[in-house]
Design a protein that fits this description.
Distance between the termini: 17 Å
Strand order of the largest sheet: 1-5-2-3-4
Radius of gyration: 18 Å
Strand content: 5-15%
Largest sheet: 5 strands, parallel
Number of strands: 5
Shape: elongated
């Protein structure tokens, strides 16, 4: 363990979660400031462990004879999208609606404890009070949140299209090595499916075509519930104990 992040490889059964999945967790975006310098270094270790797990006889102790799949979270793992993309898109959507809400980087880091954009907005306003311009009835508020999330996704996709949010270094190489060894590669995220697809598309058409995406409202309960991973296991016919997952948050690791 490094702060709240953990590197767990096949064979480390003491840390295996409800799925029996081995996990490789990178640095949480919502990490207390005093831990960040230690956590950032864990990202390189996480990539190394995932890579070693792919290689036959790798130091992680799990070669391709044991491993079936490499499964990524999206935001914060494939690309650093949370602070400068999702947060920015949320604030722009709020401003367009004339809502007196602005999420700072520090606040947004705390809000990431709630999985899912619609759920995040609702939880935040239920706690601090709804904006003056928001409807007062529950149905009206649900419609507002739904509309805001739709617009936020549009703004997010426009922002990704500008090239301001590149893939993390090494992601393309890791995906290539996994695919070359015949492993299943997938992405499991609480984010909107269109938004996740836009990030995966940054990997290029040939890679993206071979990556299965499970995202958004495809499951009723989002992370930290394991439902998105359970669905991926079912649809891809995977053995949980032969999967390696790359996550970057506490709720993701819990899932």
């Amino acid at each position: 363990y490094v702060g709240n992040a953990a590197l767990v490889v096949p064979g480390a059964r003491a840390h295996v979660g409800r799925l029996g999945c081995a996990s490789v967790a990178c640095a949480p975006a919502a990490m207390p400031r005093h831990n960040r310098s230690r956590i950032v270094r864990s990202r390189d270790r996480a990539a190394w462990v995932a890579r070693a797990a792919i290689e036959d006889g790798g130091a992680a102790g799990a070669g391709t004879k044991d491993m079936m799949a490499l499964i990524f979270d999206c935001d914060g793992v494939l690309a650093e999208t949370e602070k400068e993309a999702h947060r920015t898109a949320f604030n722009e959507a709020f401003a367009e609606r004339g809502l007196d809400t602005d999420w700072t980087p520090e606040l947004y880091g705390e809000l990431l404890a709630t999985g899912g954009g619609k759920e995040r907005m609702t939880a935040h306003w239920n706690r601090v009070g709804w904006p003056a311009a928001a409807p007062s009835d529950e149905d009206g508020r649900k419609e507002l949140v739904k509309a805001l999330h739709k617009r936020k996704t549009e703004l997010f996709m426009e922002l990704i299209g500008t090239g301001r949010v590149p893939l993390r270094g090494g992601v393309e190489r890791l995906v290539d090595e996994a695919l070359a060894r015949g492993l299943t590669v997938a992405v499991c995220s609480t984010s909107n499916e269109l938004a996740v697809g836009r990030i995966v598309a940054l990997l290029g058409e040939q890679r993206a075509a071979r990556i299965s995406i499970f995202a958004g409202d495809i499951v009723a309960r989002k992370k930290p519930s394991p439902d998105i991973y359970l669905l991926a296991l079912d649809k891809l016919q995977l053995d949980a104990s032969r999967c390696v997952v790359v996550e970057d948050s506490h709720i993701g690791l819990s899932a």
